[in-house]
Design brief:
Elements lengths: L3 H22 L2 H10 L7 H9 L1 H21 L1
């Protein structure tokens, strides 16, 4: 069970993950992978709540973020 502070921290990380992929990496193929498996395009607070409170989803999205960053760094 995750407490409210943990959930808020996770939601903040999700926002930062999304910002980094969209604005810093900026590669269309990578962004498409993120939108399909990470945060949806035009995500809502409900989307963040769902991912932040569901342990399986949280782990999946974190893993996806890590794989995307590795892929982007490998290209650069």
């Amino acid at each position: 069970m995750t407490n409210n502070k943990t959930i808020e921290l996770r939601k903040d990380f999700l926002r930062k993950f999304d910002d980094y992929i969209i604005n810093d990496i900026g590669d269309e193929e990578i962004i498409e992978q993120w939108l399909m498996g990470g945060l949806p395009d035009a995500w809502t607070e409900e989307d963040l709540d769902y991912i932040a409170t569901d342990e399986e989803q949280w782990c999946y999205v974190c893993g996806l973020f890590g794989r995307i960053v590795q892929m982007a760094e490998g290209e650069g």
